[in-house]
Amino acid sequence: MQYDFRVLVRFAFIVALVSGAVPVFAQGQGTFILPVPAQQLVYDAMHQKIYATVGSKGTGAMVNSVTVIDPQTGIVGPSLFVGDSPGAMVVSAGSKYLYVSVNEGGNVRRVDLPGMTAGPLYAMPGKPVRALLVYPPDPEAFIALRSNSNRYDDALGVYKNGQLSGTEAGCAGSVMMGIAPSRLFTYQGQLSSWDFDGFDVTTEGVRRSAHSQSVMSGAGGFSGNLNGLLLSGQGVIDPETRQVIGKMNFNGKDGPILPDPGSGYVFLFCEGPNGQEMHSCEMQKYQYTGSLPLPTGVKAGVASPIRWGTDGFAYIAGDKVMIFRQKLTRVLPKVDLTVERSELPAVLTRDNQLSYQLIVTNKGAQPATAVLLTDAFPAEADALTMKASQGNVTAADKILRAELGTLAPGAQVTVDVTLQFKEIKEIGLTAVVRAFEPDPQPENNIARIAPKESLSPYPDLTGTWDVVKQSSIGAGVDLKSALLGQFTVVNKGKQASRPVKVRFYLSVEPRFEVSRSPLLQETEIPRLRAGQKFPVTLQAPIDDADATGFFVYAVIDADNTEQEGTRDNNVIGARIP
C-alpha cells in the first residue's frame, strides 16, 4: 500500500555566507515533510528509492518495517514488516538486496529488491549487530560489526548467506570503509581509549593489519567518508597514514554531517530557529563557506542525512522525514586515477635496502587536480632516496608524500624510492593516490602489500584452521564435550625452521589473551623446510557443555625459540560453530 502524505512546502532559500566566501547553494525547489517516524535512511541509486526503518512508533503497516519513499514525488509506501526493532541497513552490491538488522540486532533480515519481498532471517548469535556495510564483490554477502553493550569486544566479519565467511577480527568502536572495499577501519572514540585499527578484507575473512593509539583523543567515532578520508567530529583522518590532516570548520555548529564528493563539500545539519539549518565546509582548505536555512516549521534535531539523485537531500527531524532538492553552485568532474607498484625482489639486498617505483596514471577523461600520493612504509625502515618525475616528494613519520599537482588525461608520473631497513622484518607498504575530484573507481587508487608478505630471509611460521567442531557424549550431569580440529602449520619464509611447539587455547574473546585462555593441547612441530606444511590434529576435552561462539587459538612457536622475520602471524584464531 502507498500513502500520499505529501506536504509540499515551497520557500525561497536564503543563503547566509561568511565574508569573502564563494556561494555554495543555488535556488532551492521546495520540501516534502512526510509523517514517517524513521530511525535510519538509505538511498538506493539504482532503483531511485529511499528506504526508512520504522520501529514501534509507526502506525499501521509501518510498525517494525522498512518503508519505501519515492523522493521525486514524496509518495510513501509500500511498507514491509521485517521484524522487531529494525536498526542498521545497507543496500547490497548491485542493489539486489537490502540487509536490515532486527530483533535488537540479534538477526539480519534480507529484503529482495526492487519488489520489497521478505527474504531469509539470518541469526547473528552472541553479539547484536550494530552496523552493516556493503560487501561490493558479492551481493549475497554483507559486512557486520557486532558488539556487546560496552563496545570493547566488538567483532568484525563478512557474512555470506547469513554464515560467517572466513575469520572475524576483534575490534572496538565505529566502523567505516576506506578508499577501497578491501580496507576497513574502526575507531574507539570513548573516554578511556582511542584505538584506531585497520583491517584487510580478503576471501579468508577479516584480518587486523594496523593499530594506533590516540590518533585523535575523544573524536567520538566516524561520521563520514570523503574520497577515502575518514571524517570525525574533531578532524579529518587519512586512515592509511593514520594521521589527522585537517579539521572541518562549521562556524561553531554541531550536528550530523554529510560528505558530498561530487561537490567537494561536507554539509552539517542542525536545528534552527524555525526548522533546521544546513552548513557547508569546503574540503580543499577546510573553510566554512556558508549556511542554508530550512524553515520547515518542525522544531527538532537532525538524524541520518543522505544525498539522493543529483541534487536531492533527505534527513530525519523528530517523527518526520524531510526531503528537498537543492542545486549546488559547484559540481566537480569525475576522474580515474590509478597507482601501481613495481615488482619487489624476493628478499632484501645484503645491505638491507629495498628499491621500487610507484606509477600514477590519470586514466580518466578530465584533468585531476591537487593529486597527492602517499606511501606508508614500516617503522623499521628509513627513506634513503626518493625522486618524482613531477612535483615534490618528502618523507616524515614513515610516510612518503608526493604532491604531484595536476595530471592531464592520460598523463603518468613516476616516483622512485629506496628504503633502508634497520632490521629485517616483514614488509608492509600501502600507497594511495587521491585528487580533489571524486573518483568512482577507488579500488585502483591503492597499491597495497599486506604485512604478511615478507621479504625476510628468515623462517616465517604461520598456519590455517581447516576444521573446528565440537563433539558431545552423554547428557545432563554426565555430558562431556570435546573440541576437535585440524590445523596446518606452514613455513612461508625463505629458510628452514627449527622444531617448535604449538599450543592451543580456548577463549570467549575475539582478541587473544593468554592469561584469560585455558590451555587445551601442546604439540611439537618438527623442522620445516621453506614452503613445507605440517598437519596437526586437535582433540581436547572442554569444561563448557557448549562452546558455540567461543574461539580457539593456535599459538605457533609458543616458547619464542625461533628467529622469524615476523611473529605477528603466529597466533591464528577460529570461531567455534
Question: Any overview of this molecule?
Answer:
This protein is 0% helix and 52% strand. The chain has 577 residues and is mainly beta. Among the domains are: 337-449, Immunoglobulin-like, CATH 2.60.40; 461-575, Sandwich (Immunoglobulin-like), CATH 2.60.40. The strands form 11 sheets. The chain has a 5-stranded antiparallel sheet, with no helix packed on it. Strands 11, 12, 13, 14 and 15 form a 5-stranded antiparallel sheet that branches. A hairpin with a 4-residue loop joins β22 and β23 (243-246). The protein is flat and about 75 Å long. The two termini are 41 Å apart. Residues 3-28 have low confidence and may be disordered.
Primary descriptors:
577 residues; mainly beta; Immunoglobulin-like; five-stranded antiparallel β-sheet; disordered N terminus
Helices and strands in order:
Elements: E1 8-9, E2 25-34, E3 38-44, E4 49-54, E5 65-69, E6 76-81, E7 89-91, E8 97-102, E9 107-112, E10 117-123, E11 129-134, E12 141-146, E13 154-160, E14 163-164, E15 169-171, E16 174-177, E17 183-187, E18 196-202, E19 205-212, E20 222-226, E21 229-232, E22 235-238, E23 243-246, E24 257-260, E25 265-272, E26 275-282, E27 287-294, E28 302-308, E29 312-317, E30 320-328, E31 337-341, E32 353-362, E33 368-376, E34 381-388, E35 392-396, E36 399-407, E37 412-421, E38 429-434, E39 446-449, E40 461-473, E41 480-491, E42 500-507, E43 519-525, E44 533-542, E45 551-556, E46 571-575
Antiparallel strand pairs: 1-2, 2-30, 3-4, 4-5, 5-6, 7-8, 8-9, 9-10, 11-12, 12-13, 13-14, 13-15, 16-17, 17-18, 18-19, 20-21, 21-22, 22-23, 24-25, 25-26, 26-27, 28-29, 29-30, 31-32, 32-37, 33-36, 33-38, 34-37, 35-36, 38-39, 40-41, 41-44, 42-43, 42-45, 45-46
